[in-house]
Amino acid sequence: MTSTPPTTAAPAAPPTGLRAFYEDPAVPVASGADRSHRQARMLARALGPVRPDRPAATVLDVGCGDGTAAAVAARVLAGHRIVGVDWSQDALRRAARRVPQVVRGELSDGRLPFASGAADAVLFSEVVEHLVDPDSALDELHRVLRPGGHLMLSTPNLAAWYNRALLLAGVQPVFSEVSLRRIHGRPGDQVVGHLRLFTARALREFVAASGFDVVRVEGARFHGVPRPLRPLDRLACRLPSLASILLVHARRK
């Protein structure tokens, strides 16, 4: 009788495509401080302080990256529970240094590891522009939020004040990318993997179509604006349709 030699599991294949791109430690996973602070303050106003008659809220930072934004939110949202969620193991290792609790979860892989209605609020900070299927992603955020729960979504503005001027000059807008290898046809030299870009009007309509009531839209500055132009970028925040970054507060129906 001939024995069959034991089999060994094949090593896991290295990530490819977009997964490999986002698992690369050189790809930035943190966003601007101005956006983080403004978004945290918006959520703090929505949730209110923790009191005996108002228990701590559960806030999921979905696509938390290195945890920078979650750490800012935790300082502003004293007493509330912040959970960082990301599918990049490298990002989670970095986030764990800043956030008390991190969980691995994938929006594109069916379901996040949370029960329906488990969250009081979701931070979704500069993630939607990286997604192949943003519709399914918002469906999943809708599922994990309780009725009336808060969605705080931010994304770069395709119609930012300087992008309007660039397009008139025939230059590719800032934030847009035609390649995952290098920048072509626009200012800057850092590829960050943007697949979708929104104007303020498109973002409002997209969020509303996903089962949310849009409460407020605000603007935030972009850290990459050259120093001499930063006063203009700060001024543009007063009119979100011209701002560098769009911040949306919406509530789950």
TrEMBL record:
Which species?
Streptomyces luteolifulvus
**Gene3D superfamilies under this entry?**
Vaccinia Virus protein VP39
Q: Which Pfam families does this entry report, sorted A to Z?
A: Methyltransf_23
Alphabetized UniProt keyword annotations? Methyltransferase, Transferase
Q: Which GO terms describe its biological process?
A: antibiotic biosynthetic process; methylation
What InterPro entries does this protein's entry cite? SAM-dependent_MTases_sf
Q: Name one GO molecular function term.
A: methyltransferase activity
Q: What is this protein called?
A: Methyltransferase domain-containing protein
Q: Which residues cross the membrane?
A: none
Does the UniProt entry include the keyword Ubl conjugation?
A: no
